[in-house]
Amino acid sequence: MKRMLGKSAANERTDVVGDRVALEPGRYNLCPEMKFFATPPVHGSLANQVVHPADLCFKLSENVSLEEGAMCEPLSVGVHACRRAEVGPETNVLVMGAGPIGLVTMLAARAFGVPRIVIVDVDDNRLTVAKQLVAYGIVKVTTSLKVSTLSWIDQSFIMTM
């Protein structure tokens, strides 16, 4: 049964019940009690349905797939980082970690016009994906980085204007 947008007598938001939505986790960086889905003791990130505060749910347009919707939050992290760092064609970027957040941050930096993006990780598979996307350079972190690798990173961030 459809109801008007807003709150019912039971104080239950009904405007997104059954809708496909992207979830905003809130301002978790300010909350010492924050718990993420799939991080104990919170379970359910692989469930078909979850309960989440309605004012932190954003309805997906019909032309947005669930996969694209799932990337809204990681992409927003990358775009926010690029905006805060004021990156652009005159800057170079070092991304620490080639997981989902690192990869979309790398893509966001490229969209902002960054010419040289070096990404660092411990996992060869993640670095391969990063290189296939747009990374200018990749660095596999080990317990003993060679001086030549460190020198290459240093030289990668020197741009001549």
UniProtKB/TrEMBL annotation:
Coiled-coil positions: none
Highest classification ranks of the organism: Eukaryota, Viridiplantae, Streptophyta, Embryophyta, Tracheophyta
Cofactors (names): Zn(2+)
Domain of life: Eukaryota
One GO MF term: oxidoreductase activity
Keyword Transmembrane helix: no
Family of this protein: Belongs to the zinc-containing alcohol dehydrogenase family.
Keywords annotated in UniProt: Metal-binding, Oxidoreductase, Zinc
Protein name: Alcohol dehydrogenase-like C-terminal domain-containing protein
Species per Swiss-Prot/TrEMBL record: Brassica oleracea var. oleracea
KW Oxidoreductase (keyword) present: yes
